[in-house]
Amino acid sequence: MTAHLDTPHDLVGIGIGPANLSLAALAHTLNPTGGTGLATAFYDQRRYFQWHPGLLIEGSTLQVPFLADLVTLADPASPWTFLNYLKHKERLFPFYFAEQFHIQRAEYDAYCRWVAGRLPGLHFGHQIDAVRWNPEHDLFEVDFTQLDPDGEAQALGRTHTRNLVLGIGTAPYIPAPLRPLADAPTVPVIHSADYLDHRTRILGADHITVIGSGQSGAEVFLDLLRARPHGHERLTWLARTPSFAPMEYSKLGLEHFTPDYTRYFHALPEPVRDQLVPAQWQLHKGIDAATIAAIHDELYRRTLHGGWPDTVLTPGVTVRTAGRVATTKVELHLEHVQQGTRSRLTTDAVVLATGYRERPLTQLLAGLDPYLRKDASGRPRIDDRHRMILDPAVTGSLYIQNGERHTHGVGAPDLGLTAWRSASILNTLTGKELYPLPTRTAFTTFGLEPREHPRPPAPAALLPLVEHP
User: How many of the other CB atoms lie within 10 Å of CB of 120?
Assistant: First the structure.
């Protein structure tokens, strides 16, 4: 299980979500027979690939077209496209007649598992323990623990690599006022990330509260609403945002998820970037218009024979504090900001659709901390080629995927930019234009500076670090 020092990898990836799975697929296409191409390995502590399993609600769809698969927008001729997956499953004609541009989440998950099950060099059940730089050999050292099917330590190992890429993704986030609810084991209080695992128990509660105004909250509320009896829905949906707002999905608005906008955003001063990210929440935290329509249609249908459904949908509300009442209920202390009023809500179950945050890198990169260059807020500084800026003594590159929103903008976690970013990393890593990328991707010209088309990457050893204060 341990790679010897005399056989280092060219690239080791930590985490196998869509981002690193895309990178692995595009790297494999360069070297499908294991000959003279890049030597890569990817590690993940999970036993197998999973993509948001708790939110694969029946009928829920991706918010990006199927072309935003792992590889198509960089290499449509790749064997790892979604269309090739359909071909292997003998489902091309049914998909053709279905005329679906946005596929179901469960189908995207199945496609990714199909890729993960066929790509070599993916090591599931491997927990990364430490990462260090070995100056004597000019290599990164990566220590790992191989886990058995029960998640227990089975063996220790170490691998060496010239370059690293982090793709550890995000983790469910619970705001501080709601964290005491995690200590209420007799009351079903779960994050939406685990919704399907607890759906039956949640539906068995007399009164259910959903907290969160994004797509996950809307999908959970709709699923609960459809499953509850007419006139006895007993559902409350609370949102901190001023309204249950639709996601910005105009065609020019979507150009914020292009490489053009990513380059523009990266070139902005750090304080300006920090102001922009929260202001652009409706680009990625709103609700799909079709989901909003489905919720309204379901509510309206329940008024056809008179009366109103037993539901409360209230935006503009914050939860000040939360706690248990006796052993079977939860009490939420609420505040309506616009009204300046406060109230209490007692409920029997809570679904926290409160989003995700980037996983902290502090522990994982503790061994590299002396080499890391950080911004004014203590975050890693990342150049325009998705590399963390390191001390010049480190000759290898440390790339990051879906952890650079503060430097690359709202498109950092977007599936539509996954293939482009993976191709960019491989081009930079090799110093070759292995995947020719477009020089222009948007009709919008962001900023007043003349458009500068990106140049082909220089040889890897000569690549300049582009950084901004």
Answer: 10
